[in-house]
Amino acid sequence: MARSSTFVDVAIIGAGPYGLSLAAHLRRRAVEHRIFGEPMGPWKTNMPPGMLLKSYPWATSLSDPDSEFDLKRFCAERALPYHDELMPLPLSRFVDYGEAFQSRYVPAVERKSLIRLEPGAGFLRATFDDGETVEARRVVVSVGLSPFKRLPPEAALLPAELCSHSSEYGSLDGLDGREVVVVGSGSSASDLAALIHERGISVSLVARRPKLQFADGPRHRSWLSRAIAPMSGIGHGWTLATCAKYPQLIQHLSKDLRIRLANHRALGPLGGAFVRDRVVGKIPALLGQEIRHVGTHNGKVMLNLVDPCGAERLMKADHVIFATGYKIDVSRLRFLNPALLQHLQLVDGAPQLSAHYEATVPGLHFIGPAAANSFGPVCRFVCGTDHSARHLARHLSAVLARYRPALQLRPLDRTVLP
Ligand SMILES: Cc1cc2nc3c(=O)[nH]c(=O)nc-3n(C[C@H](O)[C@H](O)[C@H](O)COP(=O)(O)OP(=O)(O)OC[C@H]3O[C@@H](n4cnc5c(N)ncnc54)[C@H](O)[C@@H]3O)c2cc1C
After folding, report:
1. C-alpha dist (Å) from residue 221 to 54, 89, 122, 226, 374
2. What CATH class has 153-214+268-322?
């Protein structure tokens, strides 16, 4: 809580929904901690302005100890329109909500980046980009998805000015006047394509899938359909509803089942319901296409595409955006020192975690998307913040209590007594 010199009980790396929620719970429990990162960073800089969230507003709240400051309450306080399901949540409103949450519950975020994390004697040593070194009994990594963008091998053949990943937008200014191809069929692909098209930029979609799919629009559901396929914050159906409500149960499943569940089609990969009409019939889409080869010619990208019947076609563009998602692979976290990496047991690239989100390196915890292979698909969404924040704050408060000095009793100051 209060800033200590160079030693702290808990260092939280990341100030997105997961890090902020945990910090709010630790603060309530008076667990000494520091939190580092840009508040709501990737939501402000790595997602295009105008984007609509695909999760339901009721399932897009950060977690505070009294469950009192959810998105609904934020909108009510500011007289902003709100509906649990029937309206999309604009990115800018979610960012405002996250920042309001931060100033209310986590006032002391330190905007700096971790560049090295290494083992010490009974603690972990974290070095930041301003040169400060912090020794922490516990380090909680909550760096989200940004370090794990997935690019197809073909992208490595292209110069940076001709290709990018969807996570690099942000502002679309650099695309004005260019002919753009977006590769992918998930929500990032359809969101970006719609926003680029609405800016008056020529854009096409290219995808391996034979059909663009979008989430169902909000609609009234009878009690029967709700009973057959209950609604949860990460989609309909008993599997997802159970995963959303009881992430701790997933721990006990086999490794293969956990990996399958982590990648379950929770809210995707589909276009968001509200973006369908902005894409279908408006943006040219070449579907069922594999990229066989990419190259360049006269400063343009050349995509050699092949359909399932083997027919080839050549496509030309000024810029190609790969909206090809993310794959958790902790070896890509450059701040992890090789000695730590070596002791991390992995499940398909993600850390194997205990029931307390602790990796096989004692004192090192992971929350958010990196925890999905141990706690299921809810960790890939904002609505997973509640379980990790509540559970981990309770656990850390209990295990760190043994380091706290016993209450010091001072003699009564008689001068102020009557
Ligand atoms: C395009 C897109 C749309 C999405 N839409 C939805 C949606 O509609 N609903 C939903 O529930 N989820 C959505 N998600 C998923 C969502 O982004 C993640 O589930 C959520 O952001 C994870 O929160 P987080 O706190 O783990 O990380 P993030 O929100 O990604 O925050 C990461 C934090 O880590 C910090 N950080 C990173 N590296 C370092 C470092 N080295 N040192 C210090 N700090 C560091 C950053 O500054 C930032 O503060 C979407 C994701 C994407 C990419």
Report:
1. 19, 21, 54, 6, 32
2. alpha beta
